Amino acid sequence: MSTARRDMREVMRDEMIMRDRIVAILQEEAKTVPEVAEALGAPEHETVYWMMAMRRYGMVEEIGRPDIDGYFKYEFREQEEEGHE
């Protein structure tokens, strides 16, 4: 894994690809951002952007209290389909 920071536009372009991978990881069990980053093989600072975008749209939510390092565990939240009446 490179230590060089990528341009933020590049990170955000990867959001749709990483979203599916993050969902698969969180469907197994709730994890913190560093745990998800490790599972992805991605930097934590990029993983935070992807997960916070998912949180904003209600795809993931934090559960419980933060751990000793201040990280919440996040779980995947099933999306309810809107009915067409």
Helix and strand layout, with pairings?
Layout: H1 8-13, H2 15-28, H3 33-40, H4 44-56, E1 60-63, E2 73-76
Antiparallel strand pairs: 1-2
Helix pairs in contact: 2-4, 3-4
Describe the structure.
With 85 residues, this protein is mainly alpha-helical. It has a single domain, classed as Arc Repressor Mutant, subunit A (Orthogonal Bundle), CATH 1.10.10. Helices cover 48% and strands 9% of the residues. It is built from four helices and two strands, in the order ααααββ. It has a two-stranded antiparallel ribbon. The longest helix is centred in the N-terminal third of the chain and has 14 residues. The chain is globular and about 35 Å long. The relative contact order is 0.18. The mean pLDDT is 89. This is MarR family transcriptional regulator.
CATH superfamily: Winged helix-like DNA-binding domain superfamily/Winged helix DNA-binding domain
How helix-rich are the residues, as a percent range?
A: 40-55%
For the largest beta sheet, what order do the strands appear in spatially? 1-2
**Separation of the first and last Cα atoms:** 49 Å
Q: Which structural class is indicated by helix and strand composition?
A: mainly alpha
Q: What's the CATH architecture?
A: Orthogonal Bundle
Mean pLDDT across the residues is 89
